[in-house]
Design brief:
By secondary structure, the chain is of the alpha/beta class. The protein is 35% helix and 17% strand. It has a domain of 66 residues: Histidine-containing Protein, Chain: A (2-Layer Sandwich).
């Protein structure tokens, strides 16, 4: 039989690997194989997706899901959005945009480049 510590590690790994569950703010506790999920998520989909993922873990006897929905929303002003975009562009661009040249070739409706047989 798996220890509670082993089960907790397996549950956390399962939640972390699940592509459809945001486990950032989910807390996992295990006692005698009973897993309690707490914390918060943004959608009911994440809440019940987490529960379903945990049920697949070997050694889990029962799941108690006390995860709540997050209600806080940070409002960003228009000027702040512009500033964030400009700051991001400055810090991630490694080349001067005026030195970048893009060439384009039109393809015939066949999906093949001109001259390709």
């Amino acid at each position: 039989m798996k220890s509670d510590s082993d089960i907790r590690c397996a549950v956390e790994a399962e939640l972390s690997a699940h592509p459809l569950v945001d486990d950032t703010d989910i807390v996992v506790k295990v006692e005698r194989g009973v897993v309690t999920l707490s914390g918060y998520v943004r959608t009911l989909f994440h809440k019940f997706g987490a529960e379903d993922a945990v049920k697949r873990v070997a050694g889990v006897v029962r799941v108690i899901n006390t995860i709540t929905l997050a209600h806080g929303v940070h409002v960003v002003e228009r000027g702040e959005i512009r500033q964030r975009i400009e700051d991001s562009s400055r810090t991630t661009a490694s080349h001067d945009a005026s030195a970048i040249r893009v060439e384009s070739r039109d393809f015939a409706g066949t999906g093949a480049p001109p001259g390709a047989a």
